[in-house]
Amino acid sequence: MHAADRIFCAIDTMDMKIALSLAESLKGGVGGFKLGKEFFTANGPAGVAEITALGMPVFLDLKFHDIPNTVAGAIRAAEQTGCLMTTIHASGGPAMIRAAAEARISDKPIILAVTVLTSLGEDDLRAVGQSGPVADQVLRLAKMARENGADGIVASPQEVARLRSALGAECALVVPGIRPAWAATGDQKRIMTPADAVAAGADYLVIGRPITQADNPADAAARIAAEIEQAAG
């Protein structure tokens, strides 16, 4: 896989014109685009269709978490958008995960289970009554998700090596919390550079602000891809 193909740029905006302009400027320089709740709530399936019409893969990151029947319906709706990947919360439990995996007519979208959000640390887990440490909770949820039909896992880069070892080569690992050394940390707590995350076993990297808030987003994406390529070579 080429280095640029590993990068999914997070387009977090309500403005469709800004989203399209950004996507067009990055076309061919990244592997695809991640569209989350902010974009989807403002623009809906029609907005997703406008992005997919550019011919680039879309990661529809809506983190479904509900009763199994409702999540199954949401996955069927997501499938109609033509997205490559979508997310559910692993903490929804085995029945919900199975319902999501079985709802698809085809093998798309790829079902990714979110384990522990990258904005959460040890104190946050304790506050919501989950047993830590974070790495143990991530592995517990990841194994359960895979056993019940999830195609891959979303986890912080700091857990990637352990997940790759435990889950094998066939499990897709999609990793947010990526920050190049030259970028601001922001509100992410468990972060890693792009090159280090790929070396640890990540398949795809979700990168937002280091690209979208750069003076020249295409140049920032190319710089990140070059860093990954150089580290791999």
Descriptive report:
This protein has 233 residues and is of the alpha/beta class. The chain contains ten helices and eight strands. The protein has an eight-stranded parallel β-barrel, surrounded by seven helices. The longest helix is centred in the N-terminal third of the chain and has 16 residues, at 37-52. It is globular, with a radius of gyration of 17 Å.
List keywords for this structure.
single chain, TIM Barrel, 233 residues, eight-stranded parallel barrel, 8 strands, alpha/beta
Brief characterization of the structure:
By secondary structure, this protein is α/β, with parallel strands linked by helices. The protein has helices at 16-26, 37-52, 68-80, 94-103, 122-127, 134-147, 160-167, 194-200, 209-212, 217-232, and strands at 7-11, 32-35, 58-64, 85-89, 110-114, 152-154, 172-175, 204-207.
Describe the secondary structure blueprint for this structure.
Layout: E1 7-11, H1 16-26, E2 32-35, H2 37-52, E3 58-64, H3 68-80, E4 85-89, H4 94-103, E5 110-114, H5 122-127, H6 134-147, E6 152-154, H7 160-167, E7 172-175, H8 194-200, E8 204-207, H9 209-212, H10 217-232
Parallel strand pairs: 1-2, 1-8, 2-3, 3-4, 4-5, 5-6, 6-7, 7-8
Helix pairs in contact: 1-2, 3-4, 6-7, 8-10
